[in-house]
Amino acid sequence: MPFIQKARTGTGRIVKIIGYLVWLGCGLYIFICEVRIINDASGFGLGFLAFLLFPIVYSFAPFIGWLITGIFPLGIFIFWLISWVGRVIIYAGSRISGEE
Question: H-type helices in 43-73, by residue range?
Answer without folding.
Answer: 44-52, 54-59, 61-69
